[in-house]
């Protein structure tokens, strides 16, 4: 775990820079079919001209990770990137593949040789994918890349396993609490300081809730793996952890005193404060939508996603919303929030040429002037539409890099870039997600959260002991440590 400072306030929540780039040119692009391919190295290294028989002289096909159909803006940005990439590498045929990583589908994709040349995944998946051989070792490509030392070390380290590199970070986040300031103050509630506690969260949630009008004080996620993910922040804040590794074996440890304390707090919000939604079975999208629509005073997530929805889809104003760190369990405690992120990894079944070209594609817009121009163009376009640009969480580049300073300078030029309270970044404390069986643990804890919200008077220790036993026997005991 590591504390994040406020050296670059605007960078903490800056999310779609990588895809948001402008340019021109286009050549052969296929929507589907064909073989997965790849390619190599950095696209902006300034190296000497390569020999005639190098990778740029060979016909290569790569199947690239492509945004989902409803992500029209991201698709336009990716199309632009494809055009610019193929202008530089006319020997490459690109196939678009909008498959989104699913832990239940990746094995089938690999077995059928249908996985893209590179695909997106999450910080939790590194060891899972490495152990099963579903991700390529890109250490050599990484070491030959000129920008490797300017990358965000904390994020990148999540996909460095046993001294080898298996993925390239896109961006990251520290889980936060976003508060509907207007809703809270309209009910006569004084907001606490950003250095707040569980007691402060409880008091605000209880006072802001208006069940008769369908307004909750807080909307913790209550279904899907995200329910376990939301709760785990409180486990961390109480001083607990998910697992430990002893003698090469993964051991569950969330059924601790800290776990009981965190689960009891959830029950207080539900049964004493009556502060959560009456229909509490909210997934990630449901909870964010509830905030966007003004139906809850607080939601727990990466702040970018919530603010983006609230400001540009919900019609709220910057002064209406405020991003808080997660609350400390008690005064003086740590404001732990889960440190997560998004990564691009390369298919080990691809040829060496395909893997190298995939790496070049992944890093094509990293550290470029074109990317900076695209950020500024996006901010200007949002301004013309009467919308706001919300920087996303931790970016792929180090916050003390020269490139980060250039991004910050662009932000400071515009009044429609959302500004975070500088104090936020002095308090945020990111704690990495567990690296073994994390999604299985989240799913199991989601069941515990649902039971706690649906049945009054449950015994937290018994619930957690049963959950830990289940996770241990069905998942952790099956993990082989090398």
TrEMBL record:
Pfam families: SBP_bac_1. The keyword Cell membrane does not apply. Keywords: Signal. InterPro entries: Bact_solute-bd_prot1, SBP. Residues 1-19 form the signal peptide. Residues 28-54 are annotated as: Disordered. This is ABC transporter substrate-binding protein. It comes from Paenibacillus woosongensis.
């Amino acid at each position: 775990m590591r504390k994040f400072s406020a050296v670059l306030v605007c960078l903490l929540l800056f999310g779609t820079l990588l895809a948001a780039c402008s340019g021109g040119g286009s050549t052969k692009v296929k929507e589907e079919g064909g073989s997965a391919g790849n390619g190599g190295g950095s696209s902006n290294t300034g190296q000497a001209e390569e020999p005639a028989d190098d990778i740029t002289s060979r016909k290569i096909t790569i199947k690239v990770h492509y945004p989902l159909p409803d992500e029209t803006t991201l698709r336009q940005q990716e199309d632009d990137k494809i055009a610019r990439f193929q202008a530089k590498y006319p020997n490459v045929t690109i196939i678009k593949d909008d498959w989104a990583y699913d832990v239940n589908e990746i094995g089938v994709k690999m077995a059928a040789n249908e996985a893209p040349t590179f695909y997106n995944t999450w910080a939790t998946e590194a060891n899972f994918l490495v152990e099963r051989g579903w991700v390529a070792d890109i250490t050599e490509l990484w070491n030959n890349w000129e920008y490797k030392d300017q990358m965000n070390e904390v994020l990148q380290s999540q996909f460095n396993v046993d001294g080898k590199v298996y993925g390239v970070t896109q961006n990251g986040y520290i889980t936060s609490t976003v508060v509907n300031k207007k809703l809270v103050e309209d009910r006569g509630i004084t907001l606490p300081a950003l250095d707040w506690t569980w007691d402060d969260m409880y008091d605000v949630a209880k006072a802001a809730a208006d069940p008769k009008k369908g307004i909750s004080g807080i909307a913790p996620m209550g279904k899907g793996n995200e329910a376990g993910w939301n709760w785990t922040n409180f486990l961390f804040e109480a001083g607990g952890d998910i697992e430990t590794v002893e003698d090469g074996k993964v051991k569950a440890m969330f059924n601790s005193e800290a776990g009981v304390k965190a689960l009891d707090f959830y029950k207080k919000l539900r049964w004493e404060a009556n502060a959560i939604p009456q229909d509490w079975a909210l997934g990630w999208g449901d909870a964010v939508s509830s905030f966007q629509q003004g139906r809850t005073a607080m939601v727990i997530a990466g702040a970018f996603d919530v603010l983006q929805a609230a400001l540009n889809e919900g019609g709220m104003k910057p002064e209406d919303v405020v991003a808080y760190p997660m609350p400390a369990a008690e005064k003086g405690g740590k404001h732990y929030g889960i440190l997560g992120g998004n990564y691009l990894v390369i298919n080990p079944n691809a040829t060496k040429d395909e893997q190298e070209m995939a790496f070049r594609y992944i890093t094509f817009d990293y550290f470029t002037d074109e990317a900076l121009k695209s950020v500024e163009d996006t901010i200007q376009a949002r301004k013309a539409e009467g919308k706001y640009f919300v920087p996303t969480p931790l970016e792929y580049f180090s916050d003390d890099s020269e490139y980060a300073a250039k991004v910050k300078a662009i932000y400071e030029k515009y009044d429609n870039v959302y500004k975070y309270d500088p104090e936020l970044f002095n308090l945020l404390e990111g704690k990495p997600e567990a690296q073994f069986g994390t999604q299985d643990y989240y799913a199991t804890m989601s069941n515990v959260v649902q039971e706690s919200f649906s049945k009054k008077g449950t015994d937290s220790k018994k619930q957690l002991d049963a959950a830990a036993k289940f996770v241990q026997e069905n998942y952790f005991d099956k993990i082989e440590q090398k």
